[in-house]
Structures are given as structure tokens and as C-alpha cells.
Amino acid sequence: MTDKPIDPLEMLELLEDPDYTARVRSEVEHRERLKPSVDAILAGIRFVHHFAQTPEGERAIEAATGAGFFESVPVEDGKVLAVPRFIWPDSVYEDLFPGHAFEVSYGVAVGRHLLLGDPGIFDRKPSKGDELQRATLEAIRGVAPPNGLNAKR
Asked: What whole-number percentage of the chain has pLDDT above 70?
């Protein structure tokens, strides 16, 4: 297994490929109909937090930001955070929690926001029927300190 994310420029090319985006969209729609695995989401959160603390992770943050491979996230007072994106091959997600690669990749995205973005994004109550959000909040409770997401770890 490789802990190296897909190169940001390669990922930008993939995101322009309609076949790739259609496959991803189809997988998302399929997974949204299933009960998500809290443990798989938590595995993704923990994985990205560990990765970001390594020298390779620090270089990946710089590479993603330098290539413009980040997500713009609006926060209070009209400010915007640039949260670097990391995407690994599906086999990495599958190795972390077999049979739940989608939830692991979602956990990686959640972990990016907890680590590098605005953790308050997860403070709102889940919408009715939003099982993925419910599972995400439950996973976050598994890693968040008792006095809140914004507390120092």
C-alpha cells in the first residue's frame, strides 16, 4: 500500500474526464442509499491526520496548495479558507477499511476540514434522512476532545 496521494495535477486532469466523474457520481449515489460505516469514516479521519504530521504530508500540503488543488470554504465574516485536497488511489481506501472505500475517502475529506479548515462546518444538526452526516458526526465524536472540535489536541 502506498501512503502517497495522487499528484494534484494528475487529479485535476482526472476531474476533467467525464467517464471518471460519472463513475465517482454513480458510486456516491449508490453509497448514499446504504447505511454508512462510522468506523470507516473514522479510519479516514485518522489516516489523514497521521499523514499530515509526516514530512511527506507537509510536502503534499505545499504541493496541493501550489498546484491550486484546494477547496475554497467560506467561513464567518465573508472570509474563505483554502483547504488542500488529498486523494489517494481507491486501493489505499480499500486497504484501510475493506468494503468501505467510499466512507474512508469521505473520512479523509472530513479530516482535511478538521485539520486544515473550519471544524465548525460539522456543528450543524443532520438533515432528516442524511445518514452520511449522522455517521460523520458520530465519527467526529470519536476523535474530538470533550470540550469541542476547536480545542487544542
From this structure: 80
What are the Cα distances from residue 77, in Å, to 64, 81, 83, 87, 129? Answer: 26, 12, 17, 30, 30
C-alpha 141/C-alpha 150 separation (Å) is 12
Give just the sign of the alpha carbon dihedral 46, 24, 89, 58. negative
pLDDT of residue 32: 64
Element of type H or E holding 148: none
Q: In angstroms, rounded to a whole number, what is the distance separating the alpha carbons of residues 88 and 10?
A: 11
How far is Cα of residue 40 from the mean position of the Cα atoms in its chain?
Answer: 12
Digit-coded pLDDT (tens) for 75-118: 777 788 888 888 888 899 999 999 898 899 989 988 888 888 87
Q: Cell digits for 68?
A: 491550486
Residue spans of beta strands (DSSP E) within 1-153: 70-74, 80-84
pTM of the model: 0.69
**At a CB cut-off of 8 Å and minimum separation 6, what does 43 contact?**
96, 97, 104, 107
Give the mean pLDDT of 18-46.
83
- Per-residue cell: 85: 485536497
List Cβ neighbours of 113 (8 Å cut-off, separation of 6 or more). 73, 83, 119, 121, 122
